[in-house]
Amino acid sequence: MQTVNSLNTLKQAVEDLRQSGRIALVPTMGALHEGHLALVRRARELADHVVVSIFVNPTQFGPNEDLGRYPRRLAADEALLEAEGAALIWAPQAAEMYPQGFATSVEVGGVSEGYCGAARPGHFAGVATVVLKLFNQVQPDFAVFGEKDWQQLAVIRRMAQDLNLTSPCVENIVGAPIVREEDGLALSSRNAYLSAAERRVAGRLNGLMRQAIAQIEGGGEVSAVLADLDTALLAAGFASVDYAALADAESLAPLAALTGSPARLLVAARIGGTRLIDNMPVGSNARC
Ligand SMILES: Nc1ncnc2c1ncn2[C@@H]1O[C@H](COP(=O)(O)OP(=O)(O)OP(=O)(O)O)[C@@H](O)[C@H]1O
Ligand SMILES: CC(C)(CO)[C@@H](O)C(=O)[O-]
Ligand code: BAL
Predict the structure, then answer these.
(1) Residue 282 in contact with residue 184, Cβ under 8 Å?
(2) For the segment 9-20, what is each residue's pLDDT rounded down to a tens digit?
């Protein structure tokens, strides 16, 4: 396994890999955990070689967000990826990705607009721009993203569809299931910010979501169930709830054939300075 941090060395390394098979890209911001490693394993099933990008992308962070304190642990990440059989790590500096004079942004309309897009203005333009750059730099046959970032996956698929991407094509943008802790908390690099008390609160999120889903599937009125979920999250100790919403297939999964589920409960909530997101499918009885 090799780590490269300049575009020239990346180009050569990718050309060498392509000689002996297909490439799957796993884009990440590093501080890797089992959720990321599950993406790498999925990528290995899809292709002969796995390239993992590690780049804390400044353009997807808002001015008051955690860019400065986002965990950076390249040496530990390298050890984990070596053990998983990744072939190449692409770990550029910001100046390599955004040289002097950089002036382009990819805006994906529609799917970017609610939920995290509303709570984090500019976030999905930053994500779409960097992901399109990563796709162009690596030209993978496949790319694997986690379903934890459900809206992000929809945004990237929309971009791939709308811009007729071929490396990878939209069908080869693969979603991988959420990896969770025992109490249901989705693994996330940002969980490292949580104090022990906050971690206990965070552990309530998924259980409360499951309760709400059971109520909706049982025929409960959606807006009342969502209002109760909001209240329950605050009562459990969350400081605020950015959204607790039921997204139908049309609003968030424009490429429904690729995402499967008819509806999805999406939640983003904050504890102290930490913002957590989660989502789960809701059965076909749900009335959106
Ligand atoms: N628990 C998880 N299960 C499955 N995929 C995950 C999980 N956590 C992250 N991913 C996926 O890993 C990829 C890289 O995400 P990222 O590096 O931002 O990690 P993260 O843990 O989501 O960090 P953050 O705290 O920034 O949300 C994304 O496609 C994301 O959806
Ligand atoms: C896709 C991504 C690597 C782009 O910076 C990031 O948004 C993430 O880690 O999910
Ligand atoms: N996993 C999504 C990256 C972000 O929150 O900026």
Answers:
(1) no
(2) 999 999 999 999
pTM equals 0.95
For residue 220, the CA-to-ligand 1 centroid distance in Å is 31
Candidates 255, 288, 253; CA nearest to 171 is 255
Query: Is there an atom of ligand 3 within 6 Å of 57 CB?
Result: no
How many Å apart are CA 111 and CA 248, to the nearest integer?
Answer: 12
CA end-to-end distance (rounded Å), the chain: 47
Place of tokens 């490439």: 23
227 phi/psi in degrees, rounded to 5: -65, -40
CA distance 254 to 21: 31
Query: Would residue 49 show up in a list of annotated catalytic residues for this protein?
Result: no
Q: Are 44 and 70 in contact (CB under 8 A)?
A: no
151 CA → ligand 1 middle, Å: 12
Rounded to two decimals, the ipTM of the complex is 0.98
Binding-site residue ranges: 29-36, 60, 146-149, 152, 179, 187-190
Q: Give the other-Cβ count within 10 Å of 42's Cβ.
A: 21
- In short, whether 141's Cβ falls inside 6 Å of ligand 3 is no
Distance CA(26)–CA(143), nearest Å, equals: 6
